[in-house]
Amino acid sequence: MSTDLHDRLARANPVPGPPETPPDAGLLSTILATPLEPARGLRGRFFLAGAAAAGVVVVVVAALLPGERLGPSPAAAQALERLAAASAAQPAPPAHSWAYTRARTLYGGTNLDDPPYTVLYPALRESWVAADGSGRIRETPGRPIYLNERDRAREVAGGGRTEAGATTDRRYRLLPASSWRMAATLPTDSQALEAALRRHIETNTIPAPEAGEMFAGEMRGLISSLLHSPAASAELRAALYRVLARQEGVELVGHVRDPEGRLGVGLEFRAGSGGGPMKKLLVVDSKTGEILAEQTIVQERVEWVDAEPGDVVGEIVYLEHGWVDSREERP
């Protein structure tokens, strides 16, 4: 399953795939045993969003897996403090500049038919973000990836596409991603930042999560989104790492390589607000504190995606980042 999924993604992606050396098939066990081995090929950020035929949003809340450790890892906390220091040392961007990012992504669309199924959508995305929240997003979709022929037939029968979509190029007065807009308004003191994030979760999450793993899951997800934001300053990114170091369920994986062969620090935590069948792996540049890649990994079989435990079903890989003078330029 894993190798087949990797091959299908490589054929469908509109940009060159990972290095020729195949990714390591045993993600967690291999990394723990030999920290400098490449991680499994990352695929993209995975969202349980409604496919076009269904038009629904799925929220997965599941119990903790038996035997899983709950609580912050001291090793992860130390690594996060080092990443905070590296982030804080980065220079401020040029005045009146736009943050440019080019990334390879994979998103999942889940259809709630009986039985449910998931289609994976690869793309190449460029974004330009200004300090005032305006920007531009240019995206070139690849061919959808169907994990089995049954799901392909069902999606096609419902009007789903099988070929790569057309490139879209949109300019915004206010970018749609809320985390990008939040980044420009948050405090950079870690205590004040944590309080602000808690208020945001309590106000915007329905139902409001109580203290414990569900709240910690919401906090981890929000921090991860903000760390991805090109509008996050060096000071804010440092504060975010310090807040993340105080959250339950964050573990240090060790040194891993992303699909581009770049060496980074691996951090993982359960995805979603209740733990459950997926986990996130962040690969972070230890010198700058910038996210190199994020992947979503299956922890247990579920009915809505044809993937085995250990398979990668979501990814975002940052290929290029820089500062430009307008949203018409590239570095």
Task: Write a concise synopsis of the structure shown.
With 331 residues, this protein is of the alpha+beta class. 27% of the residues lie in helices and 26% in strands.
**Percent of residues in beta strands?**
25-35%
Order of H and E elements: HHEHEEEEHEHHHHEEEEE
Helix tally equals 8
Largest sheet: 11 strands, mixed
- Helix percent band: 25-40%
How many domains? The number is 1
Distance between the termini: 38 Å
Instruction: Give the structural class.
Output: alpha+beta
Contiguous uncertain segments of 5+ residues: 1-71
Shape descriptor reads globular
Evaluate the radius of gyration. 19 Å
Number of strands: 11
**Mean pLDDT value:** 78
Structure description:
With 331 residues, the chain is an alpha+beta fold. It has one domain (2-324). The chain contains eight helices and eleven strands. Strands 1, 2, 3, 4, 5, 6, 7, 8, 9, 10 and 11 form an eleven-stranded mixed beta sheet that branches. Strand 1, helix 3 (74-88) and strand 2 (98-111) form a beta-alpha-beta unit. Helix 3 runs antiparallel to helix 8, helix 6 (190-204) packs across helix 8 and helix 7 (213-228) runs antiparallel to helix 8. The longest helix is centred in the middle third of the chain and has 16 residues, at 213-228. The protein is globular, with a radius of gyration of 19 Å.
